[in-house]
Amino acid sequence: MRNVFTIVRKELRAYFVSPIAYVVLTGFLLLGGWFFFNLLSRFNVLLSIYTQLQQGAEDQLNLNEFVIAPLMHNLSIVLVILVPMITMRAYAEEKKGGTYELLLTSPLRTGEIVLGKFLASFLFICIMLGLTGVYPAVLIAFGNPEIGVLLAGYLGLLLLATSFVAVGLLTSSFTENQIIAAVSGLVATLLLYIIGWPADTAGEVLGPLLRYLSVTEHFAEMVNGLIDTQDLVYFASLILLSLFLTQRSVESLRWR
Amino acid sequence: MIEVQNLTKRYGDLTAVSDISFQAESGQILGFLGPNGSGKTTTMRIITGFMPATAGTVKVAGFDIFDESFEARKRIGYLPESPPLYNDMTVTAYLRFVARIKGMARADIPDALDHVLARCGLTDVAYRVTGYLSKGYRQRVGLAQAIIHNPSVLVLDEPTVGLDPQQIIGIRSLIKELAGEHTVILSTHILPEVAQVCEKVVIINAGKVVAEDMLTNLAQDQTLEDVFLKAIAQEEPGAAETVEEAAE
After folding, report:
1. A112, A130, B6, B57: which is deepest, by most CB within 10 A?
2. Which residues of B lie inside 8 Å of A (Cβ-Cβ)?
3. Tens of pLDDT along A21-36?
4. Closest to B76 (Cβ–Cβ): which among A18, A100, A105?
5. What pLDDT digit, counting tens, does each position of A196-252 carry?
6. How do residues B178-220 score in pLDDT, each as one tens digit?
């Protein structure tokens, strides 16, 4: 466990000593802020139109449905693109820089390396999502969104981002080229995002399967405030499977 | 000590290292010689446990690098061909990180750090970022990372390549000082270096050991250069190139 923390510290330091962390965080918050501003001003306009039309209409418009849910869906798309760029360097850079030799000839277990790198990226994602907390904080200060639904949505967003981190780390472990790691990571996360699209017309067997495989389906449930074991199991399996494959991929150097 | 027995490494159909055996006694400096692409780096990567052999065994300080990999790896310091530095870390942060992943106790690290910084002449650059250091300093940081946990075995892959003459002399005398407490394998193709530093010499060519003896016996009535050229001339021409391709 001590070795895992050593790796976590080293990885987090690498994010924050270089400009990577600041560029990613700024970009993410900038986009998030833009989405939030637009959704909120649209909500204001809708609210004033509705109240002019009929009395008590403001009860039909709620912040969760009109601001928070679309904001989270927008952020999830940004994560599809950003997460592979956060994780691309994890293994590829070590291979290119020759430090992979240092790691693998040290008395470290492969699992410790994989877990350390995963936890570091996970913590980075937590910071990233934590900073977006200002948007709901504004809503709570000036309105009354449902806190339970909000938290379920955040859990969904965190699980989605963590799954993408695990997938991104896996693609990074395959190559020593960071561009290849980022592009294949992006393709994989995007595929997970859209794989459910043809579900409605894919037939009785394939349809539900595609829907189950899609990250979006499970994420949308949680944004709506529904935490189902099925969704939790889905995210846990995706994360564990990716970590297991990463461990195999790093270890494979020792079989060849 | 290091025992290499019948080591073979194949990449597909190409044989990079073929059935080589040699030994380095405790406290000895063994010069590992050979032309470019003769299998030196492959052998060293197998000794350090970075990659497995196709056949054969390696024992480091009595531990098998395959079966007791963990124990063996604790006792090895390794300087690969290019020093394995994280370019965004300072020298001290980097060395502390290495000390921890090599399994050193937290309490022992500050002393060990001061010791290697002084020994490798890094005190002046201790808080500089490694990415901005000159090649000579980078090489010394590489050496410092290899010896910080006081391993019984040191594996150095071409430690003086690309350094200026003064730096070469510095590194050589440092390596000489390290012998006695550490067993050292030093790969190189610079012959005078071997003559000055090493006690024992192993020459490999095209993946095979072509000479293994104490330096004093080998270079008794002829220069090391003659020994080397004779040894590698025994192989049929063309074999070396095949292995060179394999290594790439």
Report:
1. A112
2. 45, 48-52, 70-71, 73-74, 76, 78, 80-89, 93, 97-98, 100-103, 145
3. 999 999 999 999 999 9
4. A105
5. 888 888 888 899 999 999 999 999 999 999 999 999 999 999 999 999 999 999 988
6. 887 889 999 987 888 888 888 899 989 888 888 888 888 877 7
DSSP 8-state class, residue A65: I
pLDDT for res B244: 47
Domain ranges of chain B: 2-75+152-247, 84-150
Q: Give the range of the structural domain holding residue A113, as residue numbers without chain letter.
A: 2-254
**Assembly ipTM:** 0.88
Tokens of A38: 């637009």
Residue type, A249: S
Of A102, A105, A255, the CB nearest to B52: A255
Burial of B193 (0-12, 13-18, 19+ CB in 10 A): buried
Q: Which CATH number fits domain B2-75+152-247: 3.40.50.1450, 3.40.50.300, 3.10.129.10, 3.40.30.10?
A: 3.40.50.300
Residues 6+ positions from B29 with CB-CB distance below 8 Å: B175, B176, B179, B184, B186, B197, B198, B199, B200
Q: What is the mean pLDDT of residues A36-56?
A: 87
Residues of chain A contacting residue B81, judged by C-beta atoms under 8 Å apart: 98
Contact: A97, B73; criterion CB under 8 Å: no
How long, in residues, is chain A? 256
Question: Who's near A20: CB < 8 A, 6+ residues apart?
Answer: A14, A86, A89
Q: What is the pLDDT of residue B11?
A: 86
Computed over its alpha carbons, how large is the radius of gyration of chain B?
A: 18
Number of domains in chain A: 1
CA angle A222, A223, A228 (to 5 degrees): 10
Distance, CA of A179 to CA of A118 (rounded, Å): 19
A44-48, A81-85, A170-174, B221-225: least confidently modelled range: B221-225
Which residues in chain A have their CB less than 8 angstroms from residue B97's CB? Answer: 6, 10
Q: Which residues of A touch B93 (CB under 8 A)?
A: 13
Q: Which amino acid is at B39?
A: G
